[in-house]
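Title: Prediction job returns without error message
Component: structure pipeline
Severity: low
Priority: P3
Assignee: unassigned

Description:
Job completed but the reporter wants confirmation the result is attached to the right record. Sequence as submitted:
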Amino acid sequence: QVQLTESGGSSVQAGGSLRLSCVTSEYTYDQYSMGWFRQTPGKEREEIVFINMYGIATYRDAAKGRFTASQDFAKNTLYLQMDNLQPDDTAMYYCAADRPERYRATGRFRYWGRGTQVSVSS
């Protein structure tokens, strides 16, 4: 099964930027759908970006206009560029992956990284 490792989380001031990385143990083009999620204590994990197996991103409302997902397939790495960060963006950020057919059938990802913490101060 694919393994995922996130990095790039940090503490920043409001208005700042961060780029998160998610390295996968397998080549993902045409093999895996992926997603970026975030979670704060006491709340459900929230999907913010869905990326199909060709690297095309669909942004949920929380990510529209400020976040940009991209992939470097040669490096087995998924990125999330986050600009104009606000205190409400403070969360643990996770990447996830699954086979496209499995994701279509279940609507859920089976494989997850351990997360990287983003903290935004006002």
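Comment from assignee: result matches the submitted record. The two ends are 40 Å apart (CA to CA).
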